[in-house]
Amino acid sequence: MKTRVGIVGAGPAGLLLSHLLHLEGIDSVVIESRSRQEIEATIRAGVLEHGTVELLRKTGIGARMDREGFVHEGVYLRFAGTTHRIDFKALTGRSIMVYAQHEVIKDLVAARLEAGGMLLFEVKDAAVYDLDTAQPTIRFHQRGKVEELQCDFIAGCDGFHGITRPSIPSRMRHEFTRVYPFGWFGILVEAPPSTDELIYAHHERGFALVSTRSPQIQRLYLQCDPNDELKNWPDSRIWDELHARLETREGWKLAEGRIFQKGVIAMRSYVVEPMRYGRLFLAGDAAHIVPPTGAKGLNLAAADVRVLSKALTSFYKSGNEQALKDYSATALRRVWRAEHFSWWMTSMLHRFHDETPFHHRLQLAELDYVVTSRAKAQTLADNYVGLPLE
Ligand code: FAD
Ligand code: DHB
């Protein structure tokens, strides 16, 4: 098999890249180790930045998002028993969309298949070769047969545990990591919304977040031990913690309901530099991870592939390699901004085990500053709704 761009991974990065290239007349093949059912059912992120929303709309895949997603014009920060609103619309003129990642995946898969795109699911043992030549190759197994895909370029969109990043010689990889001493316990609940906009809560017992999926289904998270197991969290303990951490002096009530999904999410910051080796280009979680507090992971993946698709388009339309040469530096500027924002939100809102009362007071002072200083609120709002795309 031959294609122009071989894409490893059908997450948001890989599927969106394939879609954007298709709109420019550039063919690609996406290979994915999981089944279509599995990728369309994996519960992950939920917040789309203004620029991601615009990108999906402009490229013809925003219709269902506009029907079923929720436009939010702000978020609440809750600490010391009171709630404060950060008004995105007033501060930035922009808003965000709450629309689940697996719904974006469904929309992208449908669009690619409808356009006759090649998506190969349930491939095994993918490996990439000849990355520093003009014809890099992907080999994999499908239905017991060895397949070879010859490409002009390979996009490594296979997430944090994928095979493309480790295929770059280690001497060419500079890695930056921070692992946090906590995780998130995430649940899906059958209940009506308890709030009209997301609540990020700082509390002595740990962080909590109230998000939504639909008028009937709510998404909630609470800070937990990173090695915690589901069996340690019977429903009664989850509700006790959520009530305690979200309690206010304003008479707010959390609506309970049947919990039908539970999971523990690890928290880390990670960046590899550069995001390119020869004709392999990394995008999304394959190149970087942020802790989820800033809701940036999916949005960064979209921003990377927008830069990459423009660079590939420029190469195929005019033979100009400059944008491909600049890809890593261009993408990394946004990546490090998001790394900083995600680290800042995480540090300000979570309870650290080794924290002293002094540190705890500093967190409260910072939160108080965010909700009283327009400049500080603007910083949060600008970063949360997302900086303009390149
Ligand atoms: P992925 O979505 O990871 O997609 C990579 C794809 O590659 C997968 O489908 C995988 O099966 C496939 N793949 C891997 N290896 C191979 C291989 N060898 N061969 C073929 N295919 C392969 N972000 C937030 O902002 N908020 C959240 O609440 C949030 N929750 C998360 C919860 C979890 C459990 C995880 C893991 C991430 C979460 N994130 C969250 C981050 C966000 O979901 C990611 O940043 C986003 O999915 C990145 O997209 P991606 O396409 O780069 O990678
Ligand atoms: C959601 C996830 C996040 O990481 C976040 O910061 C806000 C909302 C969500 O899943 O809805």
List keywords for this structure.
390 residues, alpha+beta, eight-stranded mixed sheet, 11 helices, binds flavin-adenine dinucleotide, binds 3,4-dihydroxybenzoic acid
Report what the structure shows.
This protein is α+β, with helices and mostly antiparallel strands. The protein is built from 11 helices and 21 strands. Strands 1, 2, 8, 9, 10, 11, 19 and 20 form an 8-stranded mixed β-sheet that branches. A 7-stranded mixed β-sheet has the order 6-5-14-15-16-13-17, sandwiched between helices. The protein has a 3-stranded antiparallel β-sheet with strand order 3-7-4. The longest helix has 28 residues, at 322-349. The chain is globular. It starts with a strand and ends in a 5-residue tail after the last helix. Bound molecules: flavin-adenine dinucleotide and 3,4-dihydroxybenzoic acid. 3,4-dihydroxybenzoic acid binds next to β15.
